[in-house]
Design brief:
The protein is an alpha+beta fold. It folds into 2 domains: 29 residues; 99 residues, Zincin-like. It is built from 4 helices and 6 strands, in the order αβαβββββαα. The strands form 2 sheets. A 4-stranded mixed β-sheet has the order 1-2-6-5, covered by helices on one side. A two-stranded antiparallel ribbon has the order 3-4. Helix 2 packs across helix 3. The longest helix is centred in the first third of the chain and has 25 residues.
């Protein structure tokens, strides 16, 4: 019995170490090329409250870091060259194409990612709850 418990403990410790190493690696994911920080306009706080309302999830707007890629309609993330907005959980940041920083549906779409802390597009939130105020998940984001 003791051997089995010790083996289980070592296995758990090993799995935990792998998860921690993976988490540390993910925090180094770079921002999209050319991304520059910007102070979000006051309007963004109103949009944030709208997304909190439709999603039923509260979050701290001030915790999100904001970036834009100047003079573009889209930018590249990984293998996807057509991204207009991108939420990164590791930085708790949103990066927007420069020409899209005033697009309320796109900005709210990325805000919803930040509130959900999720890169995917659950139908319940992106279509049903907030579909009328966010860019469709079928649009690159």
């Amino acid at each position: 019995m003791r051997l089995k418990a010790a083996s289980s403990s070592r296995l758990f410790a090993g799995v935990l170490l792998v998860l921690l190493i993976s988490a540390c690696k993910s925090t180094t994911e770079p921002l999209p090329n050319g991304a520059r920080p910007f102070a979000p306009p006051q309007t963004y706080q109103t949009w944030w409250q709208e997304v909190e309302s439709c999603s039923g999830i509260a979050g701290n707007f001030g915790d999100v870091s904001w970036y834009y890629v100047p003079d573009v309609n889209v930018f590249t993330v990984g293998a996807n060259p057509n991204v207009a907005g991108y939420w990164q959980p590791y930085h708790h940041s949103v990066t927007l194409a420069g020409s899209k920083i005033d697009d309320p549906d796109l900005v709210r779409h990325e805000m919803l990612h930040a509130l959900l802390k999720l890169a995917g597009h659950p139908v319940e939130y992106f279509d049903q709850r907030c579909g009328s105020i966010v860019t469709s998940p079928n649009v690159d984001s």
